[in-house]
User: Which sequence fits this backbone?
């Protein structure tokens, strides 16, 4: 999973898979889910992210992961 924030557009994109998106559905104003050709969720785009979520804090609880890269 990759989380990318783009300050010039104040958008946050969470990439769940590296598969290409073939369909996008806006589930609420400025929140779009991207799906691949099989219907699997591959990403989420959040416009005006600073107004919708707290970008200053990220808490990961009990995730079975190895941190490969962390950058600010």
Assistant:
């Amino acid at each position: 999973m990759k989380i990318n924030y783009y300050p010039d557009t104040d958008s946050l994109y969470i990439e769940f898979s590296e598969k290409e998106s073939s369909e996008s559905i806006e589930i609420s104003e400025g929140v779009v889910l991207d799906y691949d050709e099989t219907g699997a969720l591959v990403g989420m785009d959040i416009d005006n992210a600073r107004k919708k979520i707290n970008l200053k804090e990220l808490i990961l609880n009990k995730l079975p992961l190895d941190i490969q890269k962390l950058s600010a």
